[in-house]
Amino acid sequence: MLANRLQLLRLKSFGEQAHCLSQLAFTKYGKTDKKKAPLVICHGLFGQKSNWNSIAKAVQARLNNAVYCVDLRNHGDNNHYPTMTYAEMAEDVDNFIETVVFQDSDGVKCDILGHSMGGKVVMAGALDENYSKKFRKVIVEDATPVAHHQGGEFVGYVAALKKVNYMGTRKEIDNELKVAVPDNAVRGFLLTNLARDEKTGGWKFKANLDVINDYVTDTLPNNSFVGKGICREPALFIIGEKSNFVPAKDRGHILKLFPNVEFTTIPKASHWVHADQPKAFMDVVVNYLK
């Protein structure tokens, strides 16, 4: 396992607007085999590359390839940026593939997997032919290209996290969040973002809460990929049986955008399929990518 950070920061032009690319922190598992497609994994909202450590190690061992887990824009060990659109995040990932993954593999097409927000980032890239030509296979975990007013609880999470006294102990912060985030597992997941603040001696929240607040109130509920392109590459949509994030009615839209798609539903899994049913999730991923 090799932890590293991409040190490149550059500007690209999207029409008349220049975007500043976020340098993506990443962890690499395994050695690059130029005869095998590397896998890039994109986490969900409030996630980070370290959340995927166990899954990445196990999948890498079974595929015997290189696996890269990245921190998406405004998450994990990355610097903070004032905006966080799907177009920007997809461009960040594309730049990472070009400057890191392809440098290792000499341009061998990669597989890409994204969960939730990361799944939407993957879809944004897959529906852009300039990006998708670098993909061999696409995996989307419990995310849809259709805009829905889902995940409203995230707005409450952000509000609570912004009010927390970060000078308290970790236990005190946990107690402060219990009213807004009563689920122990979700609260524990959010608290993986705590890191020591060298300036104050207290704690800090690693993800950019101000920009994430804009994301959950505007980008998440209002952004649809319907009619924005077609992905010809093979795609797999993994859905949690107990999740409501990918309604059955969305499958028609998905089929139009991803004509070479397969669907798999994992029993007894919620929106966090890989966390609820890791073995079943990994079996599906490995069998699809082999």
Instruction: Return residue spans where pLDDT drops below 50 for at least 5 consecutive residues.
Output: 1-18
Total tally of structural domains: 2
Report the structural category.
Answer: alpha/beta
Could you spell the SSE succession in H and E letters?
A: EEEEEHEHEHHEHHHEEHEHEHH
CA-based shape? globular
CATH class of the largest domain: Alpha Beta
Mean pLDDT: 92
Largest sheet, in brief, is:
8 strands, mixed
Which strand order do you get reading across the main beta sheet?
Answer: 1-4-6-5-7-8-11-12
Tally of strands: 12
Beta content: 15-25%
The share of residues in helices is 25-40%
- Count of runs of 4 or more consecutive helical residues: 11
CATH homologous superfamily of the largest domain, by name?
Answer: Alpha/Beta hydrolase fold, catalytic domain
What is the CATH topology classification name of the largest domain? Rossmann fold
Describe the structure.
The chain is an alpha/beta fold and 290 residues long. Helix content is 38%, strand content 19%. It contains 11 helices and 12 strands. α2 packs across α3. The longest helix has 20 residues. It is globular.
